């Protein structure tokens, strides 16, 4: 049931094989889980910032300008595990604790910037299972081998 799985992974050593990330069996999945657990937990909200990251002041280039000082604060997150896929994350956080911008730097010095706008909170009907299920569906590509374990 793809709608109920938290995430799916494409096995890199097999052609079009999907398996739930929560299934931690097999060498490929073990390697995948170890290298992505912190990153995955961060993006799904399942992680613990204080446990998984060192939180510090931002790099000087990210210090808010005087005219932006009250609009947001910038914090720098450095994963405590060397196995993480990222080397650092900068977050621009509004006074009401919403992430306005995120800049991710990986170990290859690749920078990914995510800008969030028109943020709304508590707008999903979490007490309505049908409405929640309608938010996401996934149809695997034709010929995909699906492994249920």
Indicate the topology.
Blueprint: E1 8-10, E2 17-20, H1 27-44, H2 49-52, E3 53-56, E4 73-79, E5 86-93, E6 99-106, E7 111-115, H3 129-133, E8 145-146
Parallel strand pairs: 2-8
Antiparallel strand pairs: 1-2, 3-4, 4-5, 5-6, 6-7
Structural commentary:
The protein has 149 residues and is of the alpha+beta class. The protein is 18% helix and 28% strand. The chain is built from 3 helices and 8 strands; from the N terminus they run E-E-H-H-E-E-E-E-E-H-E. The strands form 2 sheets. Strands 3-4-5-6-7 form a 5-stranded antiparallel β-sheet. Strands 1-2-8 form a 3-stranded mixed β-sheet, with no helix packed on it. Strand 1 and strand 2 (17-20) form a beta hairpin. It is globular and about 50 Å long.
Q: What is the strand content?
A: 25-35%
Query: How can the largest sheet be summarized?
Result: 5 strands, antiparallel
Rg from C-alpha positions?
18 Å
Quantity of strands, as a count: 8
| Uncertain spans | 1-6, 26-32
**H/E series:** EEHHEEEEEHE
Q: Give the distance, in angstroms, between the N- and C-terminal Cα atoms.
A: 12 Å
**Tally of contiguous helical segments:** 3
Question: Average pLDDT, to the nearest integer?
Answer: 75
Shape: globular
């Amino acid at each position: 049931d793809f709608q109920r799985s938290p995430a799916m992974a494409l096995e890199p050593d097999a052609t079009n094989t999907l398996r739930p990330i929560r299934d931690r069996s097999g060498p490929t999945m073990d390697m995948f889980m170890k290298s992505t657990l912190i990153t995955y937990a961060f993006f799904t909200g399942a992680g613990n910032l204080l446990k998984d990251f060192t939180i510090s002041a931002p790099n000087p280039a990210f210090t808010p300008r005087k005219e932006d000082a009250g609009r947001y604060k910038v914090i720098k997150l450095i994963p405590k595990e060397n196995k993480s896929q990222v080397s650092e994350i900068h977050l621009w956080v509004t006074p009401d604790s919403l992430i306005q911008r995120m800049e991710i730097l990986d170990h290859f010095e690749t920078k990914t910037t995510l800008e969030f706008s028109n943020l709304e909170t508590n707008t999903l009907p979490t007490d309505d299972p049908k409405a929640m299920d309608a938010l996401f569906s996934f149809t695997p590509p034709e010929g995909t081998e699906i492994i249920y374990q």
